[in-house]
């Protein structure tokens, strides 16, 4: 557990004592559970819960590189409480040493801090997969969605250990911002990943539709929000977790 209902605003950082390195080696699965509730339980949600669909990210600090690594992403809802559980097992590679690690939970900008009663915890388990994430190689981050979007996404060579049992390409792709006529949010932006000649396509056919976020209620999105929650978007819906694309 990180927090158990404390009211947080904009972001919070905390040192967490993970299991030992020996115990971490026994796990092949990692899930994160987050509950975001209205700060005043005696008031209605509208005007009490946060009003906007912001990116919410859980980071762990890479002490060697002195940078934060995003290990999970969510989108806050319009005026509603949320409860998510998402499998982020690939991120075990960043936590394998266990011990004390520094985390950051960030869910709102400084101009609208959205006070939220927050519960957050990590779930470690062993599902007998036969392999466990051991190492991760960073490839690319996002960029402004315009004519130069592809420029920083140059080919990368990755050395795969000879004794590796399993290798995955993992991406978390969501489109936000008002550049290029809000196309990053409401256009089917396509992302091609080429691996040794094979092409894998991440696309967003639901973006720009009038109602396709409704179809994700069974996938963790909160229904009946305020705002335009029902419009299909590029890789996300308001009030929903963002599942890693593997």
Describe the structure.
This protein is mostly beta strands. Helices cover 5% and strands 31% of the residues. It has helices at 21-24, 179-186; strands at 3-8, 11-18, 29-37, 55-62, 67-75, 82-87, 99-106, 116-125, 191-195, 198-202, 241-242. A five-stranded antiparallel beta sheet has the order 2-7-4-5-11, with no helix packed on it. It has a four-stranded antiparallel beta sheet with strand order 1-8-3-6, with no helix packed on it. It starts with a strand and ends with a strand.
Mean pLDDT comes to: 95
Oligomer: single chain
Major pleated sheet: 5 strands, antiparallel
> What class would the helix/strand composition place it in?
mainly beta
Instruction: Give the fraction of residues assigned to helices.
Output: under 10%
Q: Return the string of H and E elements.
A: EEHEEEEEEHEEE
Across the major sheet, the strand order is: 2-7-4-5-11
Approximately what portion of the residues adopt beta-strand conformation? Answer: 25-35%
Spatial extent as radius of gyration: 19 Å
Describe the global form.
globular
What separation lies between the terminal Cα atoms?
A: 27 Å
List keywords for this structure.
single chain, 246 residues, mainly beta, five-stranded antiparallel beta sheet, four-stranded antiparallel beta sheet, 11 strands
TL;DR?
The protein is mainly beta. Helix content is 5%, strand content 31%.
What is the strand and helix layout of this fold?
Blueprint: E1 3-8, E2 11-18, H1 21-24, E3 29-37, E4 55-62, E5 67-75, E6 82-87, E7 99-106, E8 116-125, H2 179-186, E9 191-195, E10 198-202, E11 241-242
Antiparallel strand pairs: 1-8, 2-7, 3-6, 3-8, 4-5, 4-7, 5-11, 9-10
